[in-house]
């Protein structure tokens, strides 16, 4: 064993993960998983182990890499993913296409749940893979038991009598109609949430059903739902798994091996590679990207973005042709060297478009090698070669080309999203400016003509007037006079007068908008604690009238009027707006859980839970508390009817619109 490998073994961590073995040519020859990387990898090189595979690998391996994971389960999933992608020579476990088991929920009425190893396109819902079969069986049994699904595999259309499972309370007996299709479908949806790891959504659904059961005095049903919540909470363990990338696997590896393999395949020495891709949505906001790799490593200072100028319809071939032409015939050619290889993200048509564009460039110093890599089957199309080339998944050349192709795609997508976002912001600003500075009126010209429409003063001093059919621009020399519409002028004059001379109008407007100011925070914590946001808003309005700086004569602080001692117990800062809403919502939820009735919960919030219990779980006979409950209920009806729309633009440039703004980025759509 060489010194380099010996040093690697000593430095291996004792944590779980996946190890990757390479031979002298840097090809991946074996991938494995381990609970302790150091112990597992060292076992290959122990003298007392005389296993043929271990002995052979110990002689062949020249380099070892590893990827750390949180636990062995994650390592198993990552191992399978890497083996299927790179097909190492000495991994025989997955070569026969053996797969981890999946849980399958069939389509149709009262579906049964099965365990399968092969996923099919049959419309069923699949969950997995589960590396630990025993663990998967335990999860499945738990889900069937706790959510009350049928554990049998019978064909229900042929059964006319309930089976033993019904009599021992382990089946709801859909076979004889003891449970309706809609109710059973609801149970299936909960199981899907459970198996998908949608814990928050599942808990919210269960809590809502439990609260509804309490209000309807269905205490037995509420008790079962509460037990289900406790059971799920005690069983769920969150798995953190993040997909690795080729870049992570190639990290700190001698890229010369990859370039040598690529050069050998193309029979052409490769040092500099330029990758191109196109991104658009149905021809809109079309862009091109160019990434540069020198000696196998990305040179981001030479990356370039192209906004498509000449192509107005959906035509990727014309777009790639334009990008190639601009790259190799413009000023960019004078400042950068011509690559040894051009890689196009696409198929044979994209390759032909790129080559044709290059041939039309008269001043091209040298003709580079051009290839295209298609995503569907990872086929490589080479210039002057009619048939595509298919390489092994473990090929160094293929993995380098895929990495460059994916990087070009990422760079193009990011620029495309940037353009979409910029366009949306420009649209909003332009619309606002037009509304602010355009006025209705009539322009009387010196030649005796006149024209009516929306009048806007331009930056150059001219006036633009827009009618239904056209827009015309006139200079001051052409205009005799401008007469603005009287009603419009009066309205603007009144508005300006209000803005200049009265602060009262501003305060009224601010007060009107104040009740929506904290909605994103209110909705977030109402959702977290299973309350109706309108209910929380009604409490806030009654307590402080949406004044976050309000302090009562008893010392209660903020929007939800939290007492300092209560805040101390809850470990929150009552003067902080978000903490105040969080603490108040949490305390309101506590009162609702304790008394099971929203009216008693309000009484407990105002007078304290002790006084509600003191008077036999009734509203205490205090005028303040009785008026408080009545006022909150009136405000609740008002806020429940008040429907608003909210929006925000995410980092991808997409506009998100909702009537449930549980995100601080949401802004209200002004009506």
Can you describe this structure?
This protein has 671 residues and is α+β, with helices and mostly antiparallel strands. It folds into five domains: 3-86, 3-Layer(aba) Sandwich (GIY-YIG endonuclease); 102-235, no CATH class; 247-417, UvrC, RNAse H endonuclease domain (Nucleotidyltransferase, domain 5, 2-Layer Sandwich); 438-494, SH3 type barrels (Roll), CATH 2.30.30.100; 509-658, Lysozyme (Orthogonal Bundle). Helix content is 46%, strand content 16%. The protein is built from 24 helices and 21 strands. Strands 7, 8, 9, 10, 11, 12 and 13 form a seven-stranded mixed beta sheet that branches. A five-stranded antiparallel beta sheet has the order 17-16-15-14-18. A three-stranded antiparallel beta sheet has the order 2-1-3. α12 packs parallel to α14, α18 packs parallel to α21 and α21 (577-595) packs across α22 (598-607). The longest helix has 42 residues, at 396-437. The radius of gyration is 35 Å and the shape is extended.
CATH topology of the largest domain: Nucleotidyltransferase, domain 5
Annotated CATH architecture of the largest domain: 2-Layer Sandwich
User: Helices and strands: which structural class?
Assistant: alpha+beta
Total domains: 5
Rounded mean pLDDT is 79
Give me the Rg, rounded: 35 Å
- Taken from the alpha-carbon principal axes, the silhouette is extended
Q: How far is the first residue's CA from the last residue's CA?
A: 75 Å
**CATH homology-level superfamily of the largest domain:** UvrC, RNAse H endonuclease domain
**What level of helicity do the residues show?**
40-55%
Outline the biggest β-sheet: 7 strands, mixed
Tally of separate helices: 24
State which percent range the strand residues make up.
Answer: 15-25%
């Amino acid at each position: 064993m060489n010194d380099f490998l010996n040093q690697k073994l000593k430095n291996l961590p004792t944590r779980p993960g996946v190890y990757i073995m390479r031979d002298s040519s840097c090809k991946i020859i074996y991938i494995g998983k381990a609970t302790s990387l150091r112990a597992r990898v060292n076992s290959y090189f122990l003298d007392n182990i005389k296993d043929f595979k271990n002995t052979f690998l110990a002689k062949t391996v020249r380099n070892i890499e590893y990827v750390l994971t949180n636990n062995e389960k994650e390592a198993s999933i990552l191992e399978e993913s890497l083996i299927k992608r790179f097909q190492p020579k000495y991994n025989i476990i997955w070569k026969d296409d053996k797969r981890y088991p999946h849980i399958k929920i069939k389509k149709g009425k009262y579906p049964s749940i099965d365990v399968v190893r092969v996923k099919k396109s049959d419309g069923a819902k699949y969950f997995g893979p589960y590396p630990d079969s025993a663990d998967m069986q335990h999860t499945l049994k738990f889900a069937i038991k706790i959510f009350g699904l049928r554990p049998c595999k019978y064909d229900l259309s042929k059964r006319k009598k309930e089976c033993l499972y019904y009599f021992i309370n382990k089946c709801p007996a859909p076979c004889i109609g003891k449970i309706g299709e809609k109710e059973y479908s609801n149970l299936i949806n909960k199981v899907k949430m459970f198996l998908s790891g949608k814990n928050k959504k599942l808990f919210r659904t269960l809590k809502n059903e439990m609260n509804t059961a309490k209000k309807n005095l269905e205490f037995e049903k509420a008790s079962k739902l509460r037990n289900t919540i406790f059971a799920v909470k005690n069983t769920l363990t969150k798995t953190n798994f993040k997909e690795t990338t080729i870049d992570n696997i190639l990290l700190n590896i001698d890229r010369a091996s990859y370039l040598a393999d690529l050069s050998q395949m193309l029979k052409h020495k490769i040092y500099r590679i330029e990758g191109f891709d196109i991104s658009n949505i149905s021809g809109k906001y079309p862009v091109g990207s160019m990434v540069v790799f020198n000696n196998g490593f990305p040179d981001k200072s030479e990356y370039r973005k192209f906004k498509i100028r000449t192509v107005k319809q959906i035509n990727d071939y014309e777009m790639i042709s334009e990008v190639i032409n601009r790259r190799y015939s413009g000023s960019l050619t004078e400042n950068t060297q011509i690559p040894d290889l051009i890689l196009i993200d696409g198929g044979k048509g994209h390759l032909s478009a790129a080559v044709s564009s290059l041939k039309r460039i008269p001043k091209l110093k040298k003709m580079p090698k051009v290839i295209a890599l298609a995503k569907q089957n990872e086929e490589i199309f080479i210039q002057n070669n009619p048939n595509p080339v298919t390489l092994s998944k473990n090929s160094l050349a293929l993995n380098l080309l895929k990495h460059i192709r994916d990087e070009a795609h990422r760079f193009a997508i990011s620029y495309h999203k940037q353009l979409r976002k910029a366009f949306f912001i420009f649209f909003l600003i332009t619309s606002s400016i037009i509304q602010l500075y355009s006025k209705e009126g009539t322009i009387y010209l010196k030649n005796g003509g006149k024209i009516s429409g929306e009048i806007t003063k331009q930056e150059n001093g001219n006036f633009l007037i827009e009618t239904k059919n056209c827009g015309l621009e006139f200079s001051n020399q052409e205009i005799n006079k401008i007469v603005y519409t009287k009603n419009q002028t009066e309205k603007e004059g009144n508005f300006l007068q209000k803005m200049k001379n009265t602060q009262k109008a501003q305060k009224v407007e601010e007060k009107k908008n104040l009740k929506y100011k904290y909605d994103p925070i209110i909705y977030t914590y109402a959702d977290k604690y299973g309350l109706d946001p309108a209910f929380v808003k009604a409490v806030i309005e009654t307590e402080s009238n949406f004044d976050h700086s309000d302090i009562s004569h008893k010392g209660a602080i903020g929007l939800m009027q939290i007492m300092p001692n209560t805040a101390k117990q809850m470990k929150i800062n009552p003067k902080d707006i978000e903490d105040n809403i969080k603490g108040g919502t949490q305390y309101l939820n506590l009162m609702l859980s304790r008394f099971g009735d929203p009216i008693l919960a309000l009484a407990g919030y105002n007078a304290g839970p002790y006084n509600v219990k003191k008077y036999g779980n009734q509203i205490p006979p205090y005028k303040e508390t009785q008026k408080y409950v009545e006022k909150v209920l009136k405000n609740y009806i008002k806020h429940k009817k008040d429907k608003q729309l909210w929006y925000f633009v995410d980092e991808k440039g997409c506009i998100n619109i909702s009537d449930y703004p549980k995100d601080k980025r949401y802004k209200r759509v002004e009506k």
